[in-house]
Design a protein that fits this description.
With 186 residues, this protein is of the alpha/beta class. It is 38% helix and 18% strand. The chain has helices spanning 23-37, 51-60, 86-96, 104-121, 169-185; strands at residues 2-6, 12-14, 43-49, 67-72, 132-139, 155-158. The chain has a six-stranded mixed sheet with strand order 2-1-3-4-5-6, sandwiched between helices.
Length: 186
């Protein structure tokens, strides 16, 4: 997930993915990191893809400054994950990942970490997001992915590819241009 803090000379910071078991402890940790860098901020823009978009929306409720959120193919209907098996997850992930580009150890940890995230999300229940000024949805199917039930959507844009490859080199240049356009208007 990426956070942009406006009012601080457009200082940007990135949060590398760190697995955590408890959603609240992870969110509070991110809140503290963002708050440390945004004491004089007038607005924060949170950007996330997939699970990162869900986190961006959730973190917005914990901050004491207005937020814009850009969610990239991030849904919020996770109740079906309870029926999803580890075996299916590994199979689907292996089909999505090019076998010649990822070594076995990296592939293994991607399977483990992404499974942990899916388990955490299976109990997630979105709520009304009141601290989001602008909520931009980028999705591979052009829908708002259900976010309209929880927040006012500023814009919805269709992006190229499928969920598994939407951030690949093939689609990333166009996606980056779209995100810059949204940020210029914020």
């Amino acid at each position: 997930m990426l956070a942009r803090v406006s009012g601080l000379k457009r200082q940007a910071m990135t949060q590398a993915y760190k697995p955590f078991r408890e959603k609240k402890s992870g969110i509070l940790s991110l809140k503290l990191q963002i708050a440390h860098h945004s004491t004089d901020a007038t607005k924060i823009t949170l950007v996330g893809a997939s699970f990162g978009g869900t986190m961006a929306a959730e973190i917005s409720n914990y901050l004491n400054v207005p937020c814009d959120v850009i969610a990239i193919d991030s849904g919020n209907s996770y109740d079906t994950l309870k029926e999803y098996s580890l075996q299916n997850h590994v199979k689907n992930l292996n089909n999505a990942l090019p076998s010649n580009e990822i070594d076995e150890e990296t592939r293994f940890w991607m399977q483990v970490n992404s499974w942990d995230l899916l388990q955490m999300l299976s109990d997630y229940n979105p709520r009304i997001y009141t601290n989001i000024q602008n909520f931009h949805i980028f999705s591979v199917d052009g829908s708002d992915l259900g976010w309209g039930r929880f927040a006012t959507i500023t814009s919805t844009r269709t992006i190229g590819g499928a969920h598994a490859d939407m951030l690949s080199m093939k689609y990333s240049a166009h996606l980056a241009t779209e995100i810059v356009d949204v940020l210029k208007c914020s």
